[in-house]
Amino acid sequence: MMSEDAGQMLVIYDDPSDQRSLSLDETSSTEESPDETRLSLETTNDVVPYIGQRFATHDAAYEFYSEYAKRCGFSIRRHRTEGKDGVGKGLTRRYFVCHRAGNTPVKTLNDSKPQRNRKSSRCGCQAYLRISKVTDLGAVEWRVTGFVNHHNHELLEPNQVWFLPAYRTISDADKNQILMFAKTGISVQQMMRLMELEKCVEPGYLPFTEKDVRNLLQSFRKSDQEDESIDLLRMCRNNKEKDPNFKFEYTLDSNNRLDNIAWSYASSIQSYDSYGDAVVFDTTHRLTAFDMPLGIWVGVNNYGMPCFFGCVLLREESLRSFSWALKAFLGFMNGKAPQTILTDQNMCLKEAIAIEMPTTKHALCIWMIVAKFPSWFNAVLGECYNEWKAEFYRLYNLESIEDFELGWRDMVNSFGLHTNRHIANLFALRSLWALPYLRSHFFAGMTTTGHSKAINSFIQRFLRAQTRLAHFVEQVAVAVDFKDPAAEQQTMQQNLQNICLKTGAPMESHAASILTPFAFSMLQEQLVLAAHYASFQMDDGFLVRHHTKLEGGQKVYWVPQEGIISCSCHQFEFSGILCRHALRVLSTGNCFQIPDRYLPLRWRRISTSPAKLLQSSSSDHTERIQLLQSMVSTLVAESAKSKERLNMATEQVSVLLSRITEQPVTSQGVHDISPIHRNL
């Protein structure tokens, strides 16, 4: 125990950096006279601290000074104390200072640790409040013995002071609501907006910020994540027992905790077998409640609708994690890699794809790139932003690599973007996103704006499904198997509607009998445009150009004997649909049917063989209707080729129809078909 006779005062600094920069001595104020003091709790008129002001406790003094600071536009912190509880006279004096008091401490650089370049708000402000403990007639109280109210910096306005850390608080009720929001899967921005509406405050006027919410969620994840991971693995094992075709893989870290997990469903693996030629791997989302990167593999089916292939949750976005995810996905799909894969701009993922899928063409989703343009270029270009964006899209859609690179150079010069790092980065990665470099690869139309919106809407199903991590796999399954009435009705209406032929050409009616309405509409557009083109036979093929043009055009190569045709525009390779140039050459060459190889199986009404579909135990009523429609279309097309075939078909179908009408009609069949007819 310290001796009172030692003549020594124990001084403790709450922040050592203040010791060097803040001078608080006895000459800065005078001691008060006992006759002039009064307890501030006895009146409501005390709004400004004054020498001699009295408080029952030092905490009460701190709260008073804090409220005063808030009204004035600054915040305070505890600076130093003199004395110590339980030692000598105990705690005898306290200092409270402006939040900008002191100077930034010099940090020791450590090359092994990354340094955060954060600007300090401290500027050596000398404003402070000093209180001293006084014992009067046996009663202990605290009196203001020093007060300086001069600041060397601007004070904040009332609408700005709330952003100071000292005044940002999240109440228990708000914490509970935030955690509830997190479990529903909405973003932090959406949480903030909902709470602003609920509390009837303007945006930015909540007593906490997005950063505070993220910190709260992070603290929640640390306490709850381990139990959730155990439940998640248990859920996956239960699913595997119920359905042996359900597949999942996972890894554990050095502490035997869940690190990564990926899964796919039987129906997803079956869809991938037919439509896994082009895949989007979207890794731009996170499970909000647990701050885990979420990867979703999706594609497009023969009706142009998104289909789900698989899901992965990762602990981090690293080369190791992405490589593991791609290996797991290939394992689910029996080693079959896609022809093409579209992703976000992530260098670790790019490297992982090159390693794990060396034969797959990797490209960047243009819609994910364009979504970043406002933050990249709006401030830089100002009023020229929309003009620049239109020029970007023009370059993006060009067919020639040479034209693209020349146009890009002109665009950079016109808008003065020579030193812009985003422009430089886009050009360096041009072979991964610009269409002139991608047209010889198949992407199933997923580079278009329409498909990007459909895929994003599809992915939102899974994000909305978030509650507890352990239930996420099951909820994704519900979302995958969810029968969207509007989408199903659209598919059936496509199949049952009368196709409107626009050209009257035999080639058009033949394609209409084989392709899905979605694919046929794309082909029909090219057939209509083909009439506006002229073809000229050359020594090495055909030159095809618009009838108003005197120069340029596309080169088309056609070998009629082998049924092979190709065009320099590469549209068939890119979309699986013949281009107007090739169709013009076929028409000029008296070809009345599109060669079978140019009506890809993945765009036909039934993308698997009839025998395989009939053997499949998972085929539902809708799929069998689609199969029958495809067979009938083929029957009509083949029967029309000769009188003998037509007579045979009419005779056999009459017999078959008589047998069918003798069969009883089940309620299931009536239930599935009648709603469609009612909506036609």
TrEMBL record:
<dbReference type="InterPro" id="IPR018289">
    <property type="entry name" value="MULE_transposase_dom"/>
</dbReference>
<feature type="region of interest" description="Disordered">
    <location>
        <begin position="1"/>
        <end position="39"/>
    </location>
</feature>
<dbReference type="Pfam" id="PF26175">
    <property type="entry name" value="HTH_FAR1"/>
</dbReference>
<feature type="domain" description="SWIM-type">
    <location>
        <begin position="557"/>
        <end position="590"/>
    </location>
</feature>
<dbReference type="Pfam" id="PF10551">
    <property type="entry name" value="MULE"/>
</dbReference>
<dbReference type="InterPro" id="IPR031052">
    <property type="entry name" value="FHY3/FAR1"/>
</dbReference>
<dbReference type="InterPro" id="IPR007527">
    <property type="entry name" value="Znf_SWIM"/>
</dbReference>
<dbReference type="Pfam" id="PF04434">
    <property type="entry name" value="SWIM"/>
</dbReference>
<keyword id="KW-0539">Nucleus</keyword>
<keyword id="KW-0479">Metal-binding</keyword>
<comment type="function">
    <text>Putative transcription activator involved in regulating light control of development.</text>
</comment>
<keyword id="KW-0863">Zinc-finger</keyword>
<protein>
    <recommendedName>
        <fullName>Protein FAR1-RELATED SEQUENCE</fullName>
    </recommendedName>
</protein>
<dbReference type="Pfam" id="PF03101">
    <property type="entry name" value="FAR1"/>
</dbReference>
<keyword id="KW-0862">Zinc</keyword>
<comment type="similarity">
    <text>Belongs to the FHY3/FAR1 family.</text>
</comment>
<dbReference type="InterPro" id="IPR058778">
    <property type="entry name" value="HTH_FAR1-11-like"/>
</dbReference>
<dbReference type="InterPro" id="IPR004330">
    <property type="entry name" value="FAR1_DNA_bnd_dom"/>
</dbReference>
<dbReference type="InterPro" id="IPR006564">
    <property type="entry name" value="Znf_PMZ"/>
</dbReference>
